[in-house]
Specification:
With 222 residues, the chain is mainly alpha-helical. It is 64% helix and 0% strand. It has 2 domains: 100 residues, Helix-hairpin-Helix base-excision DNA repair enzymes (C-terminal) (Endonuclease Iii, domain 2, Orthogonal Bundle); 102 residues, Orthogonal Bundle (Endonuclease III, domain 1), CATH 1.10.340. The chain is built from 13 helices and no strands. Helix 5 crosses helix 6.
Length: 222
């Protein structure tokens, strides 16, 4: 195992660059508004599921003014197969109305303004700022939170701590691609369950013996 966080971070970044050199944005969209809606819909739902429902939704309402005019029940009809669909339908309608009222129907490139919208937390705002506007951010979802702890880059105490630690571990210019690379890496090599540590290109050397033993014990108890 490497002896410093800087060495570990550099080695991890090199591995991610090798396996995912040009990570694509996983949620299909044409503009910041559609990305914002897609990210809101993605909570507790797979990106693949969101990509199945958004084409029909955006064909009916591609921008905030049009979405704000749709009844919540109509929005719900398009997204019913997404988890927490009733709440998400209300939030999509409400945030669209707020964008029309407060921002001329446009998505603001501002963390505070985004986080003031219904259904938009810090992670969602970070995704939009990074992917729609190219502003350096490090969105931390459950996958990134888990992998940062596995790789010894953060304590795993909470997502706020993980975001802070990841930002300290990597240059700002790398944040936006790295958060996508980590997500793709987790899906392919580093799942929450059924994870074979010795076969993982990063965990095999970056995970501490203590954490590895704890994960093996947790896996055997399931």
């Amino acid at each position: 195992m490497t002896t410093s966080r800087a060495d570990r971070s550099a080695r991890i970044a090199a591995i991610l660059d090798d396996r995912f050199p040009r990570p694509a944005i996983p949620l299909e969209h044409d503009d910041p508004f559609q990305l914002l809606v897609a990210v809101v819909l993605s909570a507790q739902t797979t990106d693949a599921r969101v990509n199945l429902v958004t084409p029909a939704l955006f064909a009916r309402a591609r921008d905030a003014p049009t979405m704000a005019r749709l009844p919540v029940a109509t929005i719900l009809g398009f997204i019913r197969t997404c988890g927490l669909a009733p709440t998400k339908a209300r939030n999509v309608h409400a945030l669209s109305a707020d964008l029309v009222r407060d921002h001329g129907g446009q998505v603001p490139a501002d963390f505070a303004a985004l986080e003031a919208l219904p259904g938009v937390g810090h992670k969602t705002a970070s995704v939009v700022m990074a992917q729609a506007f190219g502003v350096p951010a490090f969105p931390v979802d459950t996958h990134i939170h888990r992998l940062a702890a596995r790789w010894g880059l953060s304590s795993g105490k909470d997502v706020v701590t993980t975001e802070r630690d990841l930002k300290r571990s990597f240059p700002e210019a790398r944040w936006n691609p790295l958060h996508l690379q980590i997500i793709y890496f987790g899906r392919r090599y580093c799942p929450a369950r059924g994870h074979v540590i010795a076969a993982c290109p990063i965990c095999a050397w970056a995970m501490s013996r203590t954490r590895a033993a704890a994960e093996r014990a947790a896996g055997s108890s399931r």
